[in-house]
Amino acid sequence: MPPLSTDAAVGKIVDRLVLRFPSTQRDHIASTVAEEYAALSGSRITTYIPNLVEHGARSRLQHEVHPLRPDLRPLAPAA
Predict the structure, then answer these.
(1) For 38-77, how does the pLDDT look when each residue is reduced to its tens digit (9 = 90+)?
(2) CA-to-CA distance for 45 and 42, rounded, in angstroms?
(3) Distance CA 48, CA 24 (A)
């Protein structure tokens, strides 16, 4: 399976984070992901950039949702 393009990878990250943070606007999540990606875009090793982008964006959004409890995670949506 070939790796996803940057746009496709970012889109999938945004989709996952929208499900994880339903009270946060999609545009805000997308801009947070874009900022995280921009911070890593000059990296020489690109294999793990999508994972690092998602982790960084999730951490930032988590801090916005629960600034005093960074260890607290929102409940996953019911399947």
Answers:
(1) 999 888 888 899 999 999 999 999 988 876 665 555 555 5
(2) 9
(3) 26
Pair of tokens at residue 63: 């801090």
Separation between Cα atoms, residue 30 and residue 38, nearest integer Å: 12
pTM of structure: 0.78
Residues 13-27 have pLDDT tens digits of 999 999 999 999 999
Distance CA(67)–CA(61), nearest Å, equals: 9
Burial classification of residue 14, based on how many CB atoms lie within 10 Å of its CB (0-12 exposed, 13-18 middle, 19 or more buried): buried
Distances (CA, A) of 51 to 1, 29, 68, 77: 17, 16, 25, 21
